[in-house]
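tool=predict chain=A
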Amino acid sequence: MEIQFLGGAREVGRSAVLVDDALLLDFGSLTGDPPQYPVSRPEPDAVVVSHGHLDHVGQVPALLRGDRRPTVHWTPPTADLARVLAEDTLKLRGYDCTFTRNHVRRLGEVERRHGYGEPFVVAAGGTDYEVTLHDAGHIPGSAHVLVDDGETRLLYTADFHTDDTRLLSGSTARPDADAVICESTYSDVRHEDRARVEERFVETVRETRWEGGTALIPAFAIGRTQEVLSVLGDADVRPYLDGMGQRVTDLLRRHPEFVRDPAALRRAKSGARYVTGKDGQRDRIAADNEAVVTTSGMLSGGPVMSYLPMLRSDPTNRVCLTGYQVEGTNGRELLERGRCELNGAVVPVAARVEPFDFSAHADRNGLRSFLDAYRGATVLVNHGDRCPAFAADLRADGHDAAAPELGERVTV
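tool=predict ok
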């Protein structure tokens, strides 16, 4: 089995792994201005998508250009989330987008939806691959992808979490595999205890409002928004909810079998006040000592960019970052340098910025624990800022590990 890394190698974003030049695992984009795409546009016979985040699914509609119609395999939540993300991308990028609404509509012609633990056959490049999706514990519908060509079993972990969160149970799947492509986003980090993170977060939001400030909470629309709403709701804080998180929250409620506690998600939604953005509503909210959960999580667009100019000059306000901030994004600039780009200019932000580790990725201990089940397998490290260093750590611990470069081909 030959594997080529078209994206996500030694970086976080634009994940794309091509198997035998015929079967594609994910096809995403990297947030930025301009965004970055996989290093080539392959013509696979089939695509298996691990989950509905932009960096894994964002470019899938572009594969349906011309007369190309590769079959697309994914879970039901991923199928629905992919459409939401595609529509948002079209709205943001317009004519500059790599696909059109027609390409998004074509997904209905080629998609196949699958549950966890249900093997299915994918015909690609003259080979019949048996593929099985396993719960990855990352976001609703996220999956490890196991690919078996009859000789080699390849496990593509995609993004995964081994600990329970309010929204999902941690991944416990450890299917037999000869080779593992393993993410490494937090390979040098040990997550703070989740209960303590939630306690500090609620304290910060309450304190901000008590002092007369507004708590601006940028959050990824998929997964993070719903978890933050649950935490605030259980603390009797009724936040405003703005942006794409509204639609995603409604969507995920239609897939109760893919969340840990459907009743908790229902309560979280009922406790949130939806923002319409009409008649100066955001201006009033920003001035009213409220908590606002809004997209985008990395400050790369969305309603958060309407609130930030109104809140940035007052240190009584807080920006509560709830997710990973990719290098080069507005969120990373704000976190590290206390400034960000607003309306075409880089400006200082006096509002206090505080990060909270609500990560949906396995940390160093989680990654090591997961890979303990694969000591006899080849481990290919991807999706991280320090892939070579983590691969070296694994080799020192007895693993057969490497960190492929972008565009590199590896035979397993």
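The mean pLDDT is 95. The CA atoms of residues 339 and 348 lie 4 Å apart.
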